[in-house]
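Bench log, entry 3. Co-assembly request; chain sequences pasted below exactly as received.
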Amino acid sequence: MDDKILLAHGSGGKLTHDLIKNLLLKELGNPCLNLLDDAATFTLNGRIAFTTDSYVVSPLFFPGGDIGKLAVCGTVNDLSMVGAIPKYVSLSLIIEEGFLFPDLKKIISSIHTTAQEAGVKVVTGDTKVVNRGSADKLFINTAGIGIIPDGVEISGSHAKTGDKIILSGPIGDHGIAILCQREGLKFETSLESDCAPLNKLVADMLEASNKIHALRDPTRGGLASTLNEFAESSKVGITIEEDKIPVRDTVRAACELLGFDPLYVANEGKLVAVVDSHAAEKVLSKMQKNEQGTQAAIIGEVVADHPGKVVIKTQFGSSRIISMLAGELLPRIC
Amino acid sequence: MKFLDEYRDPELAKRLVERIHSHSFHGLRLMEFCGGHTVAIMKYGLRQLLFPQVELLSGPGCPVCVTANADIDKAIALAKKPEIILTTFGDMLKVPGSYSSLQKVRADGGDVRIVYSAQDALAIAQGNPDKKIVFLGIGFETTAPTIAASILEAKNRKIKNYYVLSLHKLCPPVIKALLDSGEIKLDGIILPGHVSAIIGSYPYEFIPRDYGIGGVVAGFEPLDILLTVEMLIAQIENRKPTIEIAYRRGVKPEGNKKAREIMETVFEITEANWRGLGRVLASGLTLKREYQDFNAEASFVLEAIPAKEPDGCVCGEILRGIKTPLNCKLFGSYCTPEQPVGPCMVSSEGSCAAYYLYGGENNGR
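Structure output for the full assembly:
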């Protein structure tokens, strides 16, 4: 096969079929996908969760992951955040003409590895190739379906006064790892994106207790935005303690230099849980035994005061409101 | 984190706050000149911790905020020219000018690029020989030397397509203008840290001499600021206003001679147009005669359009310390970081953005 993707790879003709057979089916094949029917068919029992997300990350490859891994983790995690067990995903590729074939191969192989790790199957998909300049190298869309076990009722609107806020680990790794790779910032760090599927962590948490009221992965907008979403949808106040929030030194240092606040930096392998206070310790200790939650911590609680607002207690004994991320994160001048 | 956590030690901070509260004075009015200090003060809730002993007022030390609309309009006009790539620090992108913003020009097809330093802009100039690259020179004495260095480098390497729109401002003259205006009564000034790293502390000597109040150069960590406040209170108690440095790890009395030499090689002092303060004599920097080839204003024809200020925006008064963002009726409703009306809501160092982000309601007093 040629080393570059041509427009013809998306034309529906022979090259398209070659691409599907020799790359996509070879890596991702399963009885359902192999049929190559226009739609995947399967049976599911119970309450269904359904989600979709598009991935346009730049650069495509970054320390700790790539766009393929991200595309699987993102959708798996979105399903997990309503307590669903992720089952099947779709994979849609929009490729810019001239994209390097070996890069595509690497990305598909990464999708395969991550799907296996998360225990989901790619059952349907689509490939389009667009003219040079009409897309930035590669865009991926994935959708996913999962089953919600009986007795699980998780929503951002279910936080209740007295609940504890649990964070699964240090924040800001993904955002800073990506930023360090971008043109113009010649930072050398050993920092890797935290990009990871969280469904097994959530399964462990639900095994400990089903009194998990809200779950969300703080991706774009960071922890601050997620907590604000909870406060707003549940019409409650949230108080967190600054010194309880784990942040790696590398992330803190980069944030200091660039004028960012780690509370607003993106994560791709972390979750925030709002848990009934009586179940919190049990859920926490179960999380700490999972590799995705070794540094999990209770960082605050849901309060009746200041509904709709998130307040952080600083190490100084003062407190301030943290609001949602406004606009894009831009480095400061001086 | 080493060399950072030490300056954020809660125990030490508590002791400093207690010491500040043990002094007999009440309602002291101190101005933090620099936007970086405003952000640190809001972020760590220091305003709240020091009240009612000390009232902290924000000054005009946010370079984006003090850029006059007429100057932003010039940058926008340059960015609209098809032969120009306008390079700028990120903060400037969203600042509304009289009729548009760089962000809108970019959406309309103008080539506006965010850079992290003037060196990046120079690299873009080298990589695009068929284009003219204009760097938007915003900032105080802190950034001016780096931009001067980029001009020297462009000259040495014979890069002919690199230009700077110099909107640089100087700190000491504007402090003088503020004090001369008589609009605010101050008991002391928290002097800028990074600016002073370049100019040193001597240029502030006129403050105690001519105005009878003291000034202390502060670092940007909470303990730095608390220490500075304590030093200012001690000066007031002893009735000995003077200029001191609390930020000794960053600032020497004589400043950074090398950086100043580079700045003085390329730039000369000129009158500058400040938002809120208007034209202030000898408070800006323009390119010297021998560097005119790099002067964007001299190299491109710009149509003169009358600048206008947004209705109801009190950024000017906020920059002069006579109003706080909470006194602005647009704040938080009509003017937010997503839909900013004035520059103080845009810049990461702007008072309005700091009040908005860090919850002005119970923190801003």
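Chain B has a mean pLDDT of 93. Residues 315-358 of chain B form one domain.
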